[in-house]
């Protein structure tokens, strides 16, 4: 039996969307509508043998176009954790939406791990319809297709262990091929839910986010994520500003920028 590596796990905040109201974060709106901003993250799982970057955010041009506030390029955010983007070998893409896959050109050595279904979805019939296609950036998708031909995309179909103590799991829902990442840490199994749950409220109150391919799969996904994690506080939503408040900073000078997820949340 191979022993599981124990990973350090970090969230790096790279962008913010403040002009956002709660009724946009839930199907059916929100009876107590008020400001409910979103944060944007990439994640790092640092093992003793291998490390994995999870998602790649977007760049300055996309931020202008989509009216999001870019705080730092995600590659620069990772540098704050002593990651050299030019040396990164493994990148997990939870899905190919614009805020998860931009910047892949800044990681020249990396392989990209995605689900078969995500590439099929992002290049298939549903993209002709605005509700499904609008969160994709066609240049990113085409760029990833080029990486397929260069042999740099690693396809997975369902559940796959990428290294002892780190695995990906197809969930779908938000997109056809969304995957979550399960990581073994000093506090047990932590799940990076990415957009399987944008916010804590989405899965805790079973109120799905409105950008969705399949609502049934999205709601099933909440149960799947719970089953994969060692507890409710071991689930990390993809866009919730509370993550930065609940988890301690990776170091005092990284307060509000990099949070440590392999330790217990505060309070
Ligand atoms: Zn997202």
Task: Describe the protein's architecture and organization.
With 267 residues, the chain is α/β, with parallel strands linked by helices. Helices cover 24% and strands 25% of the residues. The protein contains nine helices and 13 strands. It has helices at 60-66, 74-79, 98-101, 116-122, 130-133, 138-149, 200-204, 215-228, 242-246; strands at 8-17, 38-46, 51-54, 69-70, 90-92, 111-115, 153-156, 160-163, 166-170, 179-185, 188-194, 235-237, 258-260. Strands 1, 2, 3, 4, 5, 6, 7 and 13 form an eight-stranded mixed sheet that branches. The protein is globular, with a radius of gyration of 17 Å. Bound molecules: zinc ion. Zinc ion is lined by residues 97, 99-100, 195, 238-239.
Helix content: 10-25%
In terms of quaternary structure, the protein is single chain
The ordered string of helix (H) and strand (E) elements is EEEHEHEHEHHHEEEEEHHEHE
What characterizes the major β-sheet?
8 strands, mixed
**Morphology:** globular
Radius of gyration: 17 Å
SS-based structural class? alpha/beta
Average pLDDT confidence is 95
Binned strand content: 15-25%
Bound molecules: zinc ion
Tell me the number of helical segments per DSSP (H or I, 4 or more residues long): 9
For the termini, the CA-CA separation is 37 Å
The tally of beta strands, per DSSP, is: 13
């Amino acid at each position: 039996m191979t022993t599981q590596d124990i990973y350090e796990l970090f969230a790096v905040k790279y962008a913010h969307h403040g002009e956002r109201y709660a009724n946009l974060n839930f199907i059916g709106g929100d009876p107590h509508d008020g400001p409910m901003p979103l944060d944007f993250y990439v994640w790092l799982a640092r093992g003793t043998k291998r490390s994995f970057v999870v998602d790649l955010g977007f760049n300055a041009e996309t931020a202008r176009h989509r009216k999001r506030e870019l705080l730092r390029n995600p590659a620069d955010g990772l540098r704050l954790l002593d990651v050299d983007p030019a040396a990164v070998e493994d990148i997990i893409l939870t899905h190919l939406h614009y805020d998860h896959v931009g910047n892949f050109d800044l990681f020249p050595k990396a392989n990209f791990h995605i689900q078969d279904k995500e590439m099929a979805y992002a290049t298939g019939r549903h993209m002709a319809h605005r509700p499904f296609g609008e969160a994709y950036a066609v240049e990113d998708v085409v760029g990833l297709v080029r990486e397929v031909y260069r042999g740099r995309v690693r396809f997975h179909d369902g559940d796959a262990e990428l290294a002892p103590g780190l695995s990906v799991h197809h969930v779908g829902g938000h997109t056809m091929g969304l995957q979550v990442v399960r990581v073994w840490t000093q506090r047990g199994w932590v799940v990076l839910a990415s957009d399987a749950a944008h916010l804590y409220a989405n899965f805790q109150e079973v109120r799905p986010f409105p950008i969705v391919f399949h609502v049934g799969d999205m709601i099933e996904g909440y149960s799947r994520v719970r089953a994969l994690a060692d507890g409710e506080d071991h689930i990390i939503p993809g866009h919730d500003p509370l993550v930065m408040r609940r988890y301690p900073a990776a170091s005092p000078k990284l307060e509000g920028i990099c949070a440590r997820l392999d330790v217990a949340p505060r309070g």
